[in-house]
């Protein structure tokens, strides 16, 4: 990039007549340097002794404006451009993203004493300021690509071409995960969820606590930090409640507010003991001798009070109650 240098011509008509000063500039930029009879003063309101300004001849340092009555009338004309001079503007050390409107600019230029920084290429409303290699700067509001512009000015009035750098402002966190569920088991809790649809979604960070739901991505114990949709938390104590918060985040590190879930692991249920049915033992049939099997009532004698009781129709006897009965067989 080249600096343009302009020769400012002071035209004075003076001896006994009033002094008239005529300035002609060959570009639309402000006049920043007047050199009158070798006396430097750029009239920018800043006293700059390093460029030869003094209080004796320069109003920037509190002195009166010096005008020589003996200068001839000359028409302004441009002089050759400066050779190429390295210059640069870098935002936040070449970072791609930022979550803050406030950034740091790194500036570099040779043989300059002023600079102008702007969020728009037309530098509307921007004033020149002393050159420095770093500067705190505020971007325009609203997420998206932001471009910062800079130009530099040399002591002799040359203004550099505009340099710029861009960065993506991202202050919006992704949505929370959805359907954040827990499935407790024996010494473990299985977690499942659905990731948000945001295009810059990067991963999910899950924090666990035994007291209450973690309020931020640094509170509690981290158990997961990936892009999946499920995780099994092992090595837990049965009967104790565990609290989980799942934080979705994007490429720049904006975290969602967090989705919560909790559960209590438990031991497996012991099934009841089912006893087999009790089967009674099988009793083999009793074997009766044939001679016994052929007996009838007629083969027996029935006695009561010393008297034999006869059979009635061969099928029964008539006996008295409450008196012993004696039965015999021959």
Task: Map the helices and strands.
Elements: E1 6-7, E2 11-12, E3 21-22, E4 34-36, E5 39-41, E6 77-78, E7 87-91, E8 97-98, E9 102-109, E10 114-118, E11 129-130, E12 134-138, E13 144-153, E14 163-169, E15 178-185, E16 188-194, E17 201-209, E18 221-226, E19 230-233, E20 242-250, E21 259-263, H1 290-293, E22 300-304, E23 307-309, E24 311-312, E25 316-317, E26 326-329
Parallel strand pairs: 8-14
Antiparallel strand pairs: 1-6, 2-3, 4-5, 7-9, 9-12, 10-11, 10-13, 13-14, 15-16, 16-19, 17-18, 17-20, 20-21, 22-23, 22-26, 24-25
Protein name: Fibronectin type-III domain-containing protein
Domain Fibronectin type-III: 173-273
InterPro entries: FN3_dom, FN3_sf, Ig-like_fold
Looking at this protein, list some descriptive labels:
1 helix; disordered N terminus; four-stranded antiparallel β-sheet; 1% helix; Immunoglobulin-like; 330 residues; mainly beta; 26 strands; five-stranded mixed β-sheet
Which oligomeric state applies? single chain
Low-confidence stretches are 1-38, 66-83
* Biggest sheet record: 5 strands, mixed
Residues in helices, as a percent range:
under 10%
Strands, total number? 26
CATH topology of the domain at 178-263: Immunoglobulin-like
Task: Name the CATH superfamily classification of the domain at 178-263.
Answer: Immunoglobulins
Q: Beta fraction of the residues? A: 35-45%
Radius of gyration, whole Å: 55 Å
Classification by helices and strands:
mainly beta
Gap from first CA to last CA: 151 Å
Number of helices: 1
Global morphology: rod-shaped
Order of helices and strands: EEEEEEEEEEEEEEEEEEEEEHEEEEE
Average pLDDT metric = 80
CATH class annotation of the domain at 178-263: Mainly Beta
Strands ordered across the widest β-sheet: 8-14-13-10-11
CATH architecture of the domain at 178-263: Sandwich
Keywords: Signal
InterPro entries: FN3_dom (IPR003961), FN3_sf (IPR036116), Ig-like_fold (IPR013783)
Organism: Candidatus Portnoybacteria bacterium CG23_combo_of_CG06-09_8_20_14_all_37_13
Protein name: Fibronectin type-III domain-containing protein
